[in-house]
Amino acid sequence: MTRPSLSPTPRSTIQRGKKHAVTDRAALDAVLDAGLICHLSVVADGAPLVLPTGYGRDGDTLYLHGSSGAHTMRAAAGTDVCVAVTLLDGIVYARAVFNFSVNYRSAVIHGVAVPVTEPAAKLHGLRVLTEHLAPGSWDHAREPNARELAATTLLALDLTEASVKIRSGPPADDDEDVAAGTAWAGVLPVRSQWGAPEPCPLLPEDIAVPEHVTNRGW
Amino acid sequence: MTRPSLSPTPRSTIQRGKKHAVTDRAALDAVLDAGLICHLSVVADGAPLVLPTGYGRDGDTLYLHGSSGAHTMRAAAGTDVCVAVTLLDGIVYARAVFNFSVNYRSAVIHGVAVPVTEPAAKLHGLRVLTEHLAPGSWDHAREPNARELAATTLLALDLTEASVKIRSGPPADDDEDVAAGTAWAGVLPVRSQWGAPEPCPLLPEDIAVPEHVTNRGW
Prior knowledge:
Two copies of one chain form a homodimer. Chain A is α+β, with helices and mostly antiparallel strands. Chain A has helices at residues 25-34, 71-76, 119-133, 146-150, 175-180, 211-214; strands spanning 21-22, 37-44, 47-58, 61-67, 80-93, 101-112, 114-115, 152-158, 161-167, 186-194, 198-199.
């Protein structure tokens, strides 16, 4: 199936830094799949509210979840939300303060967060979320029971209205600053990696760390 | 000077996961000082909008900046904003899917973003921002000129209304799941570090990477 390009609406059209805009669906998927957490923004009592939260992607659907009692989940359910997933790749040192920047991959999604309540659909969405956060864990750990399902709100967000921005490479300085040659310029990369797994102290000592944890790619 | 504890208002009072709430001003400062970018949320045309952006802290003031033409900056100036700084420290693998979590340090600030236009104050705020993003750079690089200052919007946000949440340590599973002993549980730490500096290709080859870049702590 051919997937369409991102079709910007006015609010998902990148106004600044257009040269960093990417309109390829695959780029959106790649940013979402590479991130671990998102920032979910809602309007609560007329004011903006943004909180970090977990997510997972299945095709053109982004799943978000949280405690059923959480203020943000209640404020988000059935209303307009905005979700950002940001990967910081480096600090861009320029010759002029004005041209300092960061290298990054950024996805911003707008849409209505629709509560998912049908049991099979909810289990599916939670599986997607869990497998995004911790691949291989859904079949390894105990599945949610009825009480736990009730205590969890699952929201689905369509990925139709989204924008992607990516910046990479060296600083963009003015010719005069390059010619002056008075400052260093370049990129200091930011790298993320896994540390050594830290087993729960309540585990029996002879339990090995499973492969889905030890072999997790970044 | 003794700084007061964080004094929660209704919207900055942590409703869920209260056990992870921290009300120490020093904890707020530590999270903000450890982060590199924030997520700035505003209400634009009645809908939430969240974007990643740079910031810097000076005492009880958080500075944000962006292009003067940026939609977010225009929407944020003089109005309620919400800013989140999130540090992801690890993935928490639990024995039950329901108890999967992340270890993190999170700060959320509410307030009115006040434009800073007085030239000396603006230069000060931009210095704070630049030194947060790239310590040692303000005195190394060329300062902003009048045109660049005009092209930059600087916003100041008071840190009075803020909340901090920190989760660390192993998963919190139910006793029955611990006793069943059928799944591995523990934390897979997430580590961030600097890569090797990548000099701008336009630099003369004999220019050494300066100490404020090579010696940057994490």
